[in-house]
Structure formats: C-alpha cells, structure tokens
Structure prediction request, 272 residues.
Amino acid sequence: MKIYISADMEGISGVVSLAHVEPGSGEYERFRRLMTREVNAVVEAAFEFGASEVVVNDSHNKMDNILVEELHPRASLISGSPKPLSMMQGIDGSFDAVFFVGYHARAGSSEAIMDHTYTGSVLCAKINGRAMSEAGLNGRLAGYYGVPVVLVTGDQNAVRCAREELNDPVGVVVKEAVTRYSAKVCPFDVVKERIRQGVKEALEDVSRFRPTIEEGTVELEIAFKQSILADVALLIPGMKKKDARTVVYNAADYLEAYKVFRAALAMGSGIR
Ligand SMILES: [Zn+2]
Prediction:
C-alpha cells in the first residue's frame, strides 16, 4: 500500500502564531522540528497499519521545512520549491491513499489557526460554486488521479473543512483553536496516540474511501482581497472578470483548473 502525505505547518499540534511558521523568526527552528516529529509519527503509524511505501511532500511556505536528517528512515521526502504541482507534487495514480497533515481551515473561518487559502491574498476560492480550503483543492487533484484522501490532521475547523469538501476522510483534531492565533494544545504523546488511532481507522479498510472527482469541465472562481490581484489574474487567456476583485475561469478538467489557480496566485505574488 502506497501512501502520499502532503504536510503543511499551520495545523501542526503546538503551532499557534505566525512566528512559529515563518522562516527567519526565532521560534521557527523549534517548530520545524515539531513538524518533522509529527510527520514522522504519521509515517510510523502508516507503516504499522499496512503501508509499504510513504512519500512526504513538504507543503508549507518554501517547502523545505522538514528536517531531512530527522526524517523517518523509511519515508522519502519531496523538499523545496517551486514545484509544478505545489502542495501535491508527486501525486499520481500509483498511490492508494492520501493523507493531509498539519492542514488549516479555509480563508474566512473563525476559531481556526491561521485560516487562509494558499496565500493571504485569497478571500475565497471556489470550485463549481463551492468554497474550498486547501484540503478541498488538493484533494480534488488527488481525485483527478483516482486517489482518495483518507486522513486529515489539524485543528477542529481544518478537519471540518476537509470533511465538508471531500468524501469523508478520517479527521484527527490535534489542537482546539480558540482564535486565529490561540489554541488549546496538549502533550505530544496524546497527539501521537490520536494520530495512531486515526491512521489505523483510515488504513484498516482503505478500499471503502472514494476519491473526490470533479467530472467534466470545472469552473474556478477566485475572489482576491484586492482588485489589483484580479487585474493581474486577467492576463491569463480565458480568465474572465466577475467583479472588481473576482475572476472566473472555465477549465477543461481539474488539473487545468488547479494549474490556472496556481498561476493566478503566482502572478500577483509580488504585488502589494
Ligand atoms: Zn502552510
């Protein structure tokens, strides 16, 4: 059984503040170690419950957070950026299941540690009219390749978003968010056991999970926080303006929609 893990950082158990997740801050070095430890706990449980191969894709910021020297000896790691498929680099139809580790709620969620959708510039991203978190967006790319998302870890609203947007992945709540920058956290041994139980539940009968597949053409809608970002996104051929801050693109399939979403965000990344 081949497992693909996309690992973000905001939803790692002890993480509550921007200083914890921003390279260059004093606290970051501590928290990347905690991220590595938590990813390793997931990898360990995956092998315990039937995995034969685990690929981890570092999916936060510059995507080189996980300490390779401390990586679980049986895992392989995709590190660094940019990557063509970003948070889902390396996914293909050879995998049996996808885990999202350390994920966070979509932009505009309350009681959600550092809620956002890909970048701070996105107010709302929709697929065929439905608002999506990163779990929903990335899970549909897994679905494009026929692979189900079977596990998500993060705070209670990260798990809620993923379960709303995907076909019932197992959710492991590793902290209870109070506000965007505060949460009730617990010792790692407790988190580790919750993760172990979640992985067990997900892998016991992995064939019961269905991939989340967008059939046919896909309508991508992006509402930005600033109109200038919509203006820049309109440079993409086929992109249409809905209102001052919102653009719409009709893609032939989900892979195209995902790439256009990434391109639209990248084009505006230097603009303030
Ligand atoms: Zn992140």
Remarks:
- The chain has seven helices and twelve strands.
